[in-house]
Task: structure prediction
Amino acid sequence: MNDIPAKPLPEISNLTKPFWDATRSGELHMQKCSQCGHIRYPVGPVCTACLEPEHTWEKMSGKGKVLAHLVFHQVYHKAWAKEAPYSVIMVQLPEGPRMFSDIEDPAHRYKDADLVGREVEVRFRPMSPDIVLPWFKPVE
Amino acid sequence: MSLSDKMSIVGVGATAQGKLAGRTSLDLGLEAFRLALDDAGLKKNDVDGILTMPGTTSPEGSLHYIRFGEAAGIDPRYTASLTMGGGTAGALLHMAAMAIEAGMATTVACVFGDAAKSGGSRFARASGSDIGWGLWGMMGAAANSALAAERHMHEFGTTSRQLAEVAVACRKHASMNPDAVMREPITIEDHQASRFIVRPLRLLDCCLISDGGVCFIVTSTDRAKDRRKKPVLVSGMGQGYTTRHLENPDWWYVSHQKAALADAFKMAGATPRDIDVAQLYDNFTISVLLWLEHAGFCKKGESGSFVEGGRIQLGGELPVNTAGGNLSESYMEGWLHIVEGVRQMRGECGERQVKDAEQCLVTGRGMALNCANATILKRQ
Ligand SMILES: [Zn+2]
Result:
Protein backbone atom coordinates (compact mmCIF):
# COMPACT_ATOMS: atom_id res chain seq x y z
CA MET A 1 0.00 0.00 0.00
CA ASN A 2 1.70 3.13 -1.13
CA ASP A 3 -0.78 5.89 -1.90
CA ILE A 4 1.47 8.76 -0.90
CA PRO A 5 1.73 11.09 -3.90
CA ALA A 6 4.85 12.93 -4.97
CA LYS A 7 5.48 16.39 -3.57
CA PRO A 8 4.50 19.28 -5.81
CA LEU A 9 7.37 20.61 -7.92
CA PRO A 10 7.66 24.06 -9.46
CA GLU A 11 7.57 24.74 -13.15
CA ILE A 12 10.82 26.27 -14.26
CA SER A 13 10.26 29.60 -15.99
CA ASN A 14 12.69 31.93 -17.74
CA LEU A 15 12.57 33.99 -14.59
CA THR A 16 13.34 31.21 -12.12
CA LYS A 17 15.71 29.09 -14.24
CA PRO A 18 18.92 30.63 -12.81
CA PHE A 19 17.71 29.89 -9.27
CA TRP A 20 17.18 26.21 -10.07
CA ASP A 21 20.35 25.95 -12.18
CA ALA A 22 22.27 27.16 -9.12
CA THR A 23 20.65 24.77 -6.65
CA ARG A 24 21.48 21.91 -9.02
CA SER A 25 25.12 22.91 -8.66
CA GLY A 26 24.78 23.09 -4.89
CA GLU A 27 24.58 26.86 -4.56
CA LEU A 28 21.90 29.32 -3.43
CA HIS A 29 21.65 32.30 -5.78
CA MET A 30 19.44 35.36 -5.62
CA GLN A 31 18.90 38.42 -7.81
CA LYS A 32 20.88 41.57 -7.12
CA CYS A 33 19.68 44.83 -8.68
CA SER A 34 22.18 46.39 -11.09
CA GLN A 35 20.90 49.85 -10.24
CA CYS A 36 20.62 49.97 -6.44
CA GLY A 37 22.14 46.70 -5.25
CA HIS A 38 19.01 45.44 -3.48
CA ILE A 39 18.92 41.65 -3.23
CA ARG A 40 15.38 40.46 -3.76
CA TYR A 41 13.51 37.29 -2.91
CA PRO A 42 11.10 35.86 -3.99
CA VAL A 43 12.34 35.94 -7.58
CA GLY A 44 10.83 38.84 -9.51
CA PRO A 45 11.04 40.55 -12.91
CA VAL A 46 12.07 43.95 -11.52
CA CYS A 47 13.77 45.29 -8.39
CA THR A 48 11.25 45.71 -5.57
CA ALA A 49 13.18 48.75 -4.33
CA CYS A 50 13.62 50.71 -7.59
CA LEU A 51 11.80 48.80 -10.40
CA GLU A 52 15.03 48.28 -12.36
CA PRO A 53 14.85 45.05 -14.42
CA GLU A 54 18.63 44.64 -14.90
CA HIS A 55 20.16 42.32 -12.33
CA THR A 56 22.84 39.76 -11.68
CA TRP A 57 22.48 36.45 -9.90
CA GLU A 58 24.62 36.44 -6.77
CA LYS A 59 25.76 33.48 -4.72
CA MET A 60 24.54 33.61 -1.12
CA SER A 61 26.83 32.45 1.67
CA GLY A 62 24.36 29.71 2.57
CA LYS A 63 24.34 30.78 6.20
CA GLY A 64 21.24 31.89 8.01
CA LYS A 65 19.43 32.29 11.28
CA VAL A 66 16.04 30.82 12.19
CA LEU A 67 13.36 33.52 12.66
CA ALA A 68 10.43 31.16 13.10
CA HIS A 69 10.11 27.41 13.54
CA LEU A 70 6.70 25.95 12.77
CA VAL A 71 5.86 22.29 13.24
CA PHE A 72 3.14 21.02 10.91
CA HIS A 73 1.15 18.28 12.61
CA GLN A 74 -1.77 18.73 10.23
CA VAL A 75 -1.24 17.09 6.85
CA TYR A 76 -2.51 19.55 4.24
CA HIS A 77 -1.01 17.64 1.32
CA LYS A 78 -0.78 13.87 1.33
CA ALA A 79 2.81 13.97 0.10
CA TRP A 80 3.79 15.00 3.63
CA ALA A 81 1.72 12.29 5.34
CA LYS A 82 4.70 10.12 6.23
CA GLU A 83 7.00 12.79 7.59
CA ALA A 84 4.48 14.77 9.66
CA PRO A 85 5.01 16.31 12.11
CA TYR A 86 7.55 18.21 10.03
CA SER A 87 9.42 21.48 10.58
CA VAL A 88 9.14 24.56 8.37
CA ILE A 89 11.40 27.48 9.14
CA MET A 90 11.65 31.12 8.14
CA VAL A 91 15.31 31.90 7.69
CA GLN A 92 17.05 35.27 7.80
CA LEU A 93 19.99 35.30 5.37
CA PRO A 94 22.91 37.60 6.32
CA GLU A 95 22.69 39.10 2.80
CA GLY A 96 19.23 40.51 3.62
CA PRO A 97 16.53 38.26 2.17
CA ARG A 98 14.30 35.99 4.21
CA MET A 99 13.02 32.68 2.92
CA PHE A 100 10.85 29.76 3.92
CA SER A 101 12.51 26.38 3.91
CA ASP A 102 12.50 23.19 5.90
CA ILE A 103 14.75 21.04 8.03
CA GLU A 104 15.28 17.44 7.06
CA ASP A 105 14.37 15.60 10.22
CA PRO A 106 13.53 11.94 9.57
CA ALA A 107 14.06 11.04 13.26
CA HIS A 108 11.80 13.89 14.46
CA ARG A 109 14.60 15.33 16.58
CA TYR A 110 13.23 18.83 16.23
CA LYS A 111 9.54 18.09 16.66
CA ASP A 112 9.51 19.43 20.22
CA ALA A 113 12.49 21.75 19.90
CA ASP A 114 12.30 25.43 19.20
CA LEU A 115 15.05 26.46 16.84
CA VAL A 116 14.38 30.21 16.79
CA GLY A 117 17.70 32.04 16.91
CA ARG A 118 19.71 29.00 15.81
CA GLU A 119 22.35 29.33 13.10
CA VAL A 120 21.62 27.17 10.08
CA GLU A 121 23.42 26.27 6.85
CA VAL A 122 21.96 25.52 3.48
CA ARG A 123 21.90 21.95 2.17
CA PHE A 124 20.41 20.61 -1.07
CA ARG A 125 17.86 17.88 -1.64
CA PRO A 126 17.32 16.44 -5.14
CA MET A 127 13.60 16.17 -5.90
CA SER A 128 13.76 15.37 -9.62
CA PRO A 129 16.40 15.55 -12.37
CA ASP A 130 15.62 19.27 -12.73
CA ILE A 131 14.69 20.38 -9.25
CA VAL A 132 17.02 20.46 -6.28
CA LEU A 133 15.43 22.05 -3.23
CA PRO A 134 17.46 24.06 -0.72
CA TRP A 135 16.91 23.18 2.95
CA PHE A 136 18.71 24.20 6.10
CA LYS A 137 20.61 22.22 8.69
CA PRO A 138 21.06 23.55 12.24
CA VAL A 139 24.73 24.21 13.03
CA GLU A 140 25.67 21.97 15.95
CA MET B 1 -15.25 65.85 3.25
CA SER B 2 -15.76 63.09 5.76
CA LEU B 3 -18.11 60.17 5.21
CA SER B 4 -18.59 59.80 8.96
CA ASP B 5 -22.20 58.94 9.86
CA LYS B 6 -23.41 59.72 6.33
CA MET B 7 -24.09 56.04 5.61
CA SER B 8 -26.03 53.49 7.59
CA ILE B 9 -26.59 49.77 7.61
CA VAL B 10 -30.36 49.28 7.43
CA GLY B 11 -30.70 45.53 7.08
CA VAL B 12 -28.79 42.38 7.98
CA GLY B 13 -29.51 38.77 7.14
CA ALA B 14 -27.81 35.53 8.05
CA THR B 15 -28.87 32.02 7.13
CA ALA B 16 -28.52 29.00 9.39
CA GLN B 17 -24.85 28.18 9.83
CA GLY B 18 -22.83 24.99 10.04
CA LYS B 19 -23.11 21.93 7.86
CA LEU B 20 -25.95 22.46 5.41
CA ALA B 21 -25.91 19.49 3.07
CA GLY B 22 -27.08 20.18 -0.48
CA ARG B 23 -26.83 23.96 -0.21
CA THR B 24 -24.69 26.02 -2.58
CA SER B 25 -22.85 29.31 -2.19
CA LEU B 26 -25.37 30.88 -4.58
CA ASP B 27 -28.58 29.82 -2.83
CA LEU B 28 -27.14 30.64 0.59
CA GLY B 29 -26.29 34.15 -0.61
CA LEU B 30 -29.76 34.57 -2.07
CA GLU B 31 -31.43 33.45 1.15
CA ALA B 32 -29.32 35.91 3.15
CA PHE B 33 -30.28 38.64 0.67
CA ARG B 34 -33.99 37.94 1.20
CA LEU B 35 -33.52 37.96 4.97
CA ALA B 36 -31.69 41.30 4.85
CA LEU B 37 -34.36 42.86 2.61
CA ASP B 38 -37.02 41.73 5.05
CA ASP B 39 -35.00 43.04 8.00
CA ALA B 40 -34.79 46.44 6.28
CA GLY B 41 -38.36 46.43 5.02
CA LEU B 42 -37.12 46.79 1.44
CA LYS B 43 -38.09 45.16 -1.85
CA LYS B 44 -35.44 43.79 -4.17
CA ASN B 45 -36.06 46.56 -6.70
CA ASP B 46 -35.17 49.14 -4.05
CA VAL B 47 -31.63 47.79 -4.31
CA ASP B 48 -29.62 49.38 -7.12
CA GLY B 49 -26.17 48.24 -6.08
CA ILE B 50 -24.90 44.70 -5.50
CA LEU B 51 -21.45 43.89 -4.20
CA THR B 52 -20.51 40.27 -3.67
CA MET B 53 -17.77 38.07 -2.36
CA PRO B 54 -17.44 34.77 -4.22
CA GLY B 55 -17.38 31.92 -1.73
CA THR B 56 -14.48 29.48 -1.76
CA THR B 57 -16.97 27.09 -3.37
CA SER B 58 -18.44 29.59 -5.87
CA PRO B 59 -17.68 28.23 -9.33
CA GLU B 60 -18.20 31.69 -10.87
CA GLY B 61 -15.11 33.14 -9.18
CA SER B 62 -14.74 36.82 -9.98
CA LEU B 63 -17.85 36.67 -12.21
CA HIS B 64 -19.98 35.93 -9.16
CA TYR B 65 -21.72 39.34 -9.33
CA ILE B 66 -23.26 38.43 -12.70
CA ARG B 67 -24.48 35.03 -11.57
CA PHE B 68 -25.89 36.48 -8.37
CA GLY B 69 -27.61 39.37 -10.17
CA GLU B 70 -29.09 37.00 -12.73
CA ALA B 71 -30.34 34.63 -10.06
CA ALA B 72 -31.93 37.52 -8.14
CA GLY B 73 -33.32 39.10 -11.32
CA ILE B 74 -31.69 42.46 -10.72
CA ASP B 75 -29.98 44.78 -13.20
CA PRO B 76 -27.97 46.98 -10.85
CA ARG B 77 -26.61 50.45 -11.53
CA TYR B 78 -23.46 49.46 -9.68
CA THR B 79 -21.98 46.01 -9.04
CA ALA B 80 -18.73 44.11 -8.57
CA SER B 81 -17.19 41.10 -6.90
CA LEU B 82 -14.17 41.37 -4.65
CA THR B 83 -11.86 38.71 -3.29
CA MET B 84 -9.91 39.70 -0.21
CA GLY B 85 -10.72 36.71 1.97
CA GLY B 86 -11.61 37.85 5.47
CA GLY B 87 -11.00 41.45 4.46
CA THR B 88 -13.77 41.41 1.88
CA ALA B 89 -16.85 42.16 4.01
CA GLY B 90 -15.41 45.38 5.42
CA ALA B 91 -13.94 46.44 2.08
CA LEU B 92 -17.33 45.96 0.39
CA LEU B 93 -19.06 47.95 3.13
CA HIS B 94 -16.63 50.79 2.45
CA MET B 95 -17.12 50.45 -1.33
CA ALA B 96 -20.87 50.64 -0.85
CA ALA B 97 -20.52 53.80 1.23
CA MET B 98 -18.25 55.44 -1.34
CA ALA B 99 -20.51 54.46 -4.25
CA ILE B 100 -23.57 55.93 -2.56
CA GLU B 101 -21.72 59.12 -1.62
CA ALA B 102 -20.57 59.43 -5.24
CA GLY B 103 -24.14 59.10 -6.48
CA MET B 104 -23.49 55.80 -8.25
CA ALA B 105 -26.18 53.99 -6.27
CA THR B 106 -28.65 54.66 -3.48
CA THR B 107 -29.02 51.29 -1.78
CA VAL B 108 -26.32 48.65 -1.92
CA ALA B 109 -26.62 45.01 -0.84
CA CYS B 110 -23.36 43.29 0.09
CA VAL B 111 -23.68 39.51 -0.19
CA PHE B 112 -21.71 36.40 0.63
CA GLY B 113 -22.53 32.71 0.59
CA ASP B 114 -20.33 29.65 0.88
CA ALA B 115 -20.72 25.91 1.24
CA ALA B 116 -17.15 25.45 2.44
CA LYS B 117 -18.06 22.78 4.99
CA SER B 118 -20.02 20.41 2.79
CA GLY B 119 -18.88 21.62 -0.62
CA GLY B 120 -15.15 20.98 -0.23
CA SER B 121 -13.32 24.16 0.61
CA ARG B 122 -10.10 25.26 -0.96
CA PHE B 123 -8.62 26.68 2.23
CA ALA B 124 -5.84 24.09 2.32
CA ARG B 125 -4.11 25.24 -0.84
CA ALA B 126 -0.40 25.95 -0.94
CA SER B 127 0.53 29.55 -0.26
CA GLY B 128 3.18 31.70 -1.85
CA SER B 129 4.00 32.34 -5.45
CA ASP B 130 6.51 31.38 -8.09
CA ILE B 131 9.06 29.54 -5.97
CA GLY B 132 6.08 28.78 -3.75
CA TRP B 133 6.35 28.12 -0.03
CA GLY B 134 4.28 24.99 -0.57
CA LEU B 135 7.44 23.33 -1.92
CA TRP B 136 8.59 23.12 1.69
CA GLY B 137 5.17 22.21 3.06
CA MET B 138 4.36 25.78 4.17
CA MET B 139 0.67 25.48 3.31
CA GLY B 140 -2.83 25.58 4.67
CA ALA B 141 -4.79 28.37 6.30
CA ALA B 142 -3.04 28.14 9.69
CA ALA B 143 0.52 28.61 8.41
CA ASN B 144 0.74 32.40 8.32
CA SER B 145 -1.01 32.87 11.64
CA ALA B 146 1.23 30.22 13.20
CA LEU B 147 4.13 32.37 12.04
CA ALA B 148 2.54 35.43 13.66
CA ALA B 149 2.00 33.54 16.91
CA GLU B 150 5.52 32.10 16.89
CA ARG B 151 7.11 35.52 16.41
CA HIS B 152 4.82 37.15 18.99
CA MET B 153 5.71 34.50 21.53
CA HIS B 154 9.42 34.99 20.91
CA GLU B 155 9.41 38.77 20.89
CA PHE B 156 6.99 39.40 23.74
CA GLY B 157 6.75 36.20 25.77
CA THR B 158 3.13 35.61 24.82
CA THR B 159 1.95 32.14 25.86
CA SER B 160 -0.36 29.50 24.45
CA ARG B 161 -2.53 29.86 27.58
CA GLN B 162 -3.03 33.53 26.69
CA LEU B 163 -4.15 32.53 23.19
CA ALA B 164 -6.54 30.14 24.92
CA GLU B 165 -8.21 33.10 26.65
CA VAL B 166 -9.46 34.25 23.23
CA ALA B 167 -10.86 30.83 22.36
CA VAL B 168 -12.55 30.55 25.77
CA ALA B 169 -14.14 34.01 25.44
CA CYS B 170 -15.47 33.33 21.95
CA ARG B 171 -16.92 29.99 23.01
CA LYS B 172 -18.54 31.51 26.09
CA HIS B 173 -20.21 34.09 23.87
CA ALA B 174 -21.27 31.44 21.33
CA SER B 175 -22.92 29.53 24.17
CA MET B 176 -25.24 32.55 24.53
CA ASN B 177 -25.96 32.66 20.79
CA PRO B 178 -28.64 30.20 19.66
CA ASP B 179 -27.43 30.57 16.04
CA ALA B 180 -23.81 29.63 16.81
CA VAL B 181 -22.35 26.35 15.58
CA MET B 182 -20.10 25.51 18.57
CA ARG B 183 -21.89 26.24 21.86
CA GLU B 184 -20.32 23.88 24.39
CA PRO B 185 -18.20 26.00 26.77
CA ILE B 186 -14.47 25.25 26.88
CA THR B 187 -11.69 25.93 29.38
CA ILE B 188 -8.07 26.92 29.02
CA GLU B 189 -7.21 23.31 29.88
CA ASP B 190 -9.39 22.07 27.02
CA HIS B 191 -7.44 24.37 24.72
CA GLN B 192 -4.12 23.14 26.06
CA ALA B 193 -5.19 19.52 25.59
CA SER B 194 -6.23 20.05 21.97
CA ARG B 195 -3.82 18.77 19.35
CA PHE B 196 -1.33 20.88 17.47
CA ILE B 197 -2.36 21.89 13.97
CA VAL B 198 0.68 23.98 13.10
CA ARG B 199 2.76 24.55 16.22
CA PRO B 200 2.39 26.83 18.10
CA LEU B 201 -1.31 26.83 17.10
CA ARG B 202 -3.63 24.13 18.45
CA LEU B 203 -6.98 22.95 17.18
CA LEU B 204 -8.84 25.32 19.51
CA ASP B 205 -6.82 28.27 18.16
CA CYS B 206 -8.44 27.71 14.76
CA CYS B 207 -11.67 28.98 13.27
CA LEU B 208 -14.39 26.68 12.03
CA ILE B 209 -15.18 25.81 8.42
CA SER B 210 -18.83 26.52 7.73
CA ASP B 211 -21.68 26.67 5.24
CA GLY B 212 -23.84 29.76 5.36
CA GLY B 213 -24.85 33.04 3.78
CA VAL B 214 -24.72 36.63 5.02
CA CYS B 215 -25.97 39.94 3.62
CA PHE B 216 -26.09 43.53 4.79
CA ILE B 217 -27.69 46.52 3.12
CA VAL B 218 -26.20 50.01 3.08
CA THR B 219 -27.93 53.27 2.27
CA SER B 220 -27.49 56.94 3.08
CA THR B 221 -28.41 57.93 6.62
CA ASP B 222 -30.94 60.38 5.15
CA ARG B 223 -32.73 57.59 3.28
CA ALA B 224 -32.37 55.22 6.22
CA LYS B 225 -34.91 57.10 8.34
CA ASP B 226 -37.95 55.24 7.02
CA ARG B 227 -36.63 51.76 7.42
CA ARG B 228 -38.18 49.06 9.55
CA LYS B 229 -35.45 49.02 12.18
CA LYS B 230 -33.23 51.68 13.66
CA PRO B 231 -30.38 52.28 11.20
CA VAL B 232 -26.84 51.80 12.46
CA LEU B 233 -24.40 54.54 11.51
CA VAL B 234 -21.15 53.81 9.73
CA SER B 235 -19.09 56.22 11.76
CA GLY B 236 -15.52 55.43 10.75
CA MET B 237 -13.79 53.46 8.02
CA GLY B 238 -10.17 52.64 7.31
CA GLN B 239 -8.13 50.18 5.29
CA GLY B 240 -4.50 49.07 5.16
CA TYR B 241 -2.58 46.56 3.10
CA THR B 242 0.72 44.88 2.66
CA THR B 243 1.24 43.15 -0.65
CA ARG B 244 4.63 41.92 0.48
CA HIS B 245 5.43 38.87 2.54
CA LEU B 246 9.04 37.84 3.06
CA GLU B 247 10.35 41.24 1.98
CA ASN B 248 8.28 43.00 4.67
CA PRO B 249 10.12 42.52 7.98
CA ASP B 250 6.89 43.44 9.80
CA TRP B 251 4.67 41.16 7.71
CA TRP B 252 3.91 38.71 10.50
CA TYR B 253 3.02 41.59 12.85
CA VAL B 254 0.53 42.96 10.25
CA SER B 255 1.47 46.56 11.02
CA HIS B 256 -0.69 47.73 8.12
CA GLN B 257 -3.66 47.08 10.41
CA LYS B 258 -2.58 50.15 12.38
CA ALA B 259 -3.26 52.41 9.40
CA ALA B 260 -6.71 50.90 8.93
CA LEU B 261 -7.61 51.40 12.59
CA ALA B 262 -6.12 54.89 12.83
CA ASP B 263 -8.13 56.05 9.81
CA ALA B 264 -11.33 54.54 11.18
CA PHE B 265 -10.87 56.17 14.58
CA LYS B 266 -9.99 59.49 12.95
CA MET B 267 -13.06 59.48 10.70
CA ALA B 268 -15.28 58.61 13.64
CA GLY B 269 -13.64 61.18 15.89
CA ALA B 270 -13.27 58.40 18.42
CA THR B 271 -10.57 56.75 20.52
CA PRO B 272 -10.30 53.16 21.79
CA ARG B 273 -11.86 54.39 25.04
CA ASP B 274 -15.11 55.15 23.19
CA ILE B 275 -15.48 51.55 22.01
CA ASP B 276 -17.97 49.55 24.08
CA VAL B 277 -17.78 46.28 22.19
CA ALA B 278 -15.55 44.91 19.42
CA GLN B 279 -15.90 42.28 16.70
CA LEU B 280 -12.26 41.51 15.85
CA TYR B 281 -11.45 39.22 12.96
CA ASP B 282 -10.44 35.90 14.47
CA ASN B 283 -9.38 33.38 11.87
CA PHE B 284 -6.99 32.28 14.63
CA THR B 285 -6.71 33.37 18.27
CA ILE B 286 -3.47 35.27 17.64
CA SER B 287 -5.29 37.64 15.28
CA VAL B 288 -7.37 39.06 18.14
CA LEU B 289 -4.19 39.83 20.10
CA LEU B 290 -2.71 41.72 17.17
CA TRP B 291 -5.90 43.78 16.67
CA LEU B 292 -5.92 44.77 20.33
CA GLU B 293 -2.38 46.10 20.05
CA HIS B 294 -2.84 47.87 16.74
CA ALA B 295 -6.08 49.52 17.87
CA GLY B 296 -4.38 50.82 20.98
CA PHE B 297 -6.44 48.94 23.57
CA CYS B 298 -3.06 47.90 24.97
CA LYS B 299 0.59 48.53 24.20
CA LYS B 300 2.70 46.64 21.68
CA GLY B 301 3.51 43.20 23.01
CA GLU B 302 1.05 43.42 25.93
CA SER B 303 -2.03 41.86 24.37
CA GLY B 304 -1.30 38.48 25.93
CA SER B 305 -1.72 39.79 29.45
CA PHE B 306 -4.54 42.11 28.32
CA VAL B 307 -6.82 39.19 27.42
CA GLU B 308 -6.25 37.39 30.72
CA GLY B 309 -8.82 37.29 33.49
CA GLY B 310 -11.90 37.61 31.31
CA ARG B 311 -11.23 41.16 30.14
CA ILE B 312 -12.53 40.41 26.62
CA GLN B 313 -15.52 38.39 27.85
CA LEU B 314 -19.02 39.77 28.27
CA GLY B 315 -18.98 41.59 31.59
CA GLY B 316 -15.32 42.43 31.08
CA GLU B 317 -13.76 45.74 30.13
CA LEU B 318 -13.96 45.13 26.37
CA PRO B 319 -16.28 42.33 25.23
CA VAL B 320 -14.87 40.89 21.98
CA ASN B 321 -16.72 38.74 19.41
CA THR B 322 -19.96 38.69 21.34
CA ALA B 323 -21.64 36.23 18.96
CA GLY B 324 -18.74 33.77 19.12
CA GLY B 325 -16.67 34.95 16.17
CA ASN B 326 -15.10 32.86 13.44
CA LEU B 327 -13.77 30.62 16.21
CA SER B 328 -17.13 29.49 17.58
CA GLU B 329 -20.14 31.15 15.91
CA SER B 330 -19.40 30.24 12.29
CA TYR B 331 -16.66 30.91 9.79
CA MET B 332 -18.30 33.40 7.48
CA GLU B 333 -14.93 35.09 6.92
CA GLY B 334 -15.88 38.10 9.03
CA TRP B 335 -19.30 38.78 7.50
CA LEU B 336 -21.05 37.83 10.72
CA HIS B 337 -18.82 40.26 12.61
CA ILE B 338 -20.60 43.10 10.81
CA VAL B 339 -24.00 41.52 11.48
CA GLU B 340 -23.24 41.18 15.19
CA GLY B 341 -21.94 44.76 15.28
CA VAL B 342 -25.23 45.97 13.83
CA ARG B 343 -27.29 43.86 16.24
CA GLN B 344 -25.30 45.10 19.24
CA MET B 345 -25.87 48.71 18.14
CA ARG B 346 -29.59 47.99 17.77
CA GLY B 347 -29.73 46.37 21.20
CA GLU B 348 -31.10 43.11 19.78
CA CYS B 349 -28.70 40.65 21.36
CA GLY B 350 -30.66 39.46 24.39
CA GLU B 351 -28.52 37.60 26.89
CA ARG B 352 -25.29 38.63 25.15
CA GLN B 353 -26.23 42.31 24.67
CA VAL B 354 -23.59 44.75 25.91
CA LYS B 355 -25.67 47.16 27.97
CA ASP B 356 -25.91 50.71 26.62
CA ALA B 357 -23.32 49.97 23.93
CA GLU B 358 -22.98 52.96 21.63
CA GLN B 359 -19.93 52.23 19.48
CA CYS B 360 -18.67 48.96 18.07
CA LEU B 361 -15.35 48.36 16.34
CA VAL B 362 -15.48 45.75 13.58
CA THR B 363 -12.33 44.54 11.85
CA GLY B 364 -11.54 42.26 8.94
CA ARG B 365 -8.37 40.77 7.57
CA GLY B 366 -7.71 38.43 4.71
CA MET B 367 -5.43 36.56 2.34
CA ALA B 368 -1.86 35.82 3.51
CA LEU B 369 -2.16 38.52 6.23
CA ASN B 370 -2.38 41.08 3.38
CA CYS B 371 -5.70 42.93 3.58
CA ALA B 372 -6.98 44.74 6.66
CA ASN B 373 -9.85 47.08 7.41
CA ALA B 374 -11.67 48.61 10.32
CA THR B 375 -15.15 50.03 10.71
CA ILE B 376 -16.71 51.83 13.64
CA LEU B 377 -20.45 51.33 13.90
CA LYS B 378 -22.49 53.72 16.03
CA ARG B 379 -25.92 53.60 17.61
CA GLN B 380 -28.15 56.37 16.33
ZN1 LIG C 1 16.98 48.38 -7.41
Summary: The longest strand of chain B covers residues 211-220. Residues A 33, 35-36, 38, 47, 49-50, 52 surround zinc ion (CB under 6 Å). The interface with chain A takes residues 124, 126, 128-140, 142-143, 146-147, 150-151, 154, 195-200, 244, 246-247, 249, 252 of chain B (CB under 8 Å).
